[in-house]
Design goal:
This protein is an alpha/beta fold and 374 residues long. It folds into 3 domains: 1-37; 38-171, Rossmann fold (3-Layer(aba) Sandwich); 198-371, Rossmann fold (3-Layer(aba) Sandwich). Helices cover 38% and strands 12% of the residues. The protein is built from 14 helices and 13 strands. The strands form 4 sheets. It has a 5-stranded mixed sheet with strand order 9-7-11-12-13, sandwiched between helices. A 4-stranded parallel sheet has the order 4-3-5-6, with helices on one face.
């Protein structure tokens, strides 16, 4: 009986709002009125936690830069009140420089400024599950204070699930589904071409990552689910697949081991200040100079990858965000130019920017994200 009464009450409240608008009052309901008809939403996050959001979400915080593009896909960027500090692209993220930062750009995201977070009246904190310590401690610290949803929208193993969970909470299911359909079509296109490659046809690659200096030699092993998925879709073999790691992150690769490896292609994904993004020039000297510095390192200088001009540099936005599918497209083209002769990664990238980031940016004229482009 109580359930019937509650359902009738909700119906009457919804009916009341319908009548209000039908009579010509077009004013937006106050936040407290919206919350009064908001039915709690419960989702299961990537950690298997059931998270219930009891009120409509108007104030969002996030602590990993990849989440910013997720929120743009869902078209809720205007609700962000606190953020990670790694990105500052005003074209992509209007007003981002005025949004408070919860931690240093290269720090541990699981150690946010709690005083700032608590003072902003946050309705929802979105957290990416990455191979760094501190997540459980942070969740314990915030339990019962701020609803926290843990996702992995930055990598293939969690993108769809994370988008769907956030879309349910935020009421943006259509935006999520539009992206998922686009993403799946590209994924199928890539995988259909690489599925029949033999192991001998796949280049052996090293994916270099670091803190920004050319001499930083870090990488990701196949323990991180992003890596084996990339290997399959782009048609490559990760020479660092089985290195010791911290959940897939190998923070210090032994140079003596590396110099002895057979290396067909080198992907450089270092963060380089001012080298990438919509405001970077089309011939970004910072990126080109960084590429040459890495190619000259003793561990790479004599490799087949360097001698065959198969060293490539890729901006951080093309991995570690939902845009990783664009990064896969560029890598597939680099590794298998004949197989992907009629395939244009820049066209896919342009679609992503126009349709899902909703930015007015022509890649043929502006921005720098990969080098070389072919």
């Amino acid at each position: 009986m109580n359930k019937i009464i509650r359902n009738i009450t909700v119906f009457l409240m919804l009916y009341g709002f319908t009548v209000l608008y039908a009579t010509g009052n077009q004013e937006k309901p106050a936040a407290e009125e919206i919350d009064s008809i908001f039915l709690p939403v419960t989702v299961t996050d990537i950690r298997g936690r059931d998270v219930t959001v009891k009120n409509s979400v108007e104030r969002i915080a996030y602590i990993h830069h990849g989440t910013a593009e997720t929120l743009k896909i869902l078209n809720v960027w205007d609700k962000v009140v606190a953020r990670a500090g790694y990105i500052n692209d005003e074209l992509f993220f209007p007003g981002i420089k005025d949004i408070p930062v919860l931690g240093p750009p290269m720090g541990n995201p699981y150690e946010p400024n709690y005083e700032l977070l608590f003072g902003l009246g946050v309705d929802l904190l979105i957290v990416e599950d990455i191979p760094m310590p501190g997540l459980e401690d942070m969740l314990a610290h915030l339990k019962g204070i701020i609803p926290v949803v843990v996702v992995k929208t930055y990598e293939p193993g969690g993108l769809v699930e994370g988008l769907q969970a956030l879309a349910r909470i935020l009421g943006e299911e259509k935006n999520a589904q539009d992206y998922i359909m686009w993403y799946t079509a590209i994924l199928d296109n890539l995988s259909n071409k690489t599925a029949n490659l033999t192991e001998n046809q796949k280049p052996k690659i090293f994916f270099k990552h670091g803190y920004g200096a050319p001499s930083d030699v870090m990488t990701f092993t196949d323990e991180m689910s992003y890596a084996p998925f990339r290997n399959r879709i782009a048609g490559c073999i990760n020479i660092a697949a089985d290195l010791p790691s911290q959940g897939g992150w190998a923070p210090a690769v032994d140079p003596e081991w590396l110099i002895m490896q057979s290396l067909d292609a080198l992907i450089i994904a270092d963060p380089i200040p001012g080298a990438f993004g919509s405001s970077a020039s089309g011939d970004s000297l910072a990126a080109v100079n960084h590429l040459e510095a890495v190619r000259s390192l003793p561990v790479f200088a004599e490799s087949k990858a360097v001698k065959d001009q198969a060293a490539y540099i890729i901006g951080g936005g093309l991995f570690g965000t939902p845009r990783f599918i664009v990064g896969f497209a560029y890598m597939a083209k680099w590794f298998h130019p004949d197989l992907f002769a009629d395939f244009d990664p820049q066209k896919i990238h342009q679609q992503y920017l126009t349709q899902f980031m909703r930015v007015n940016l022509n890649l043929s004229e502006q921005g720098f994200y990969v080098y070389p482009k072919e």
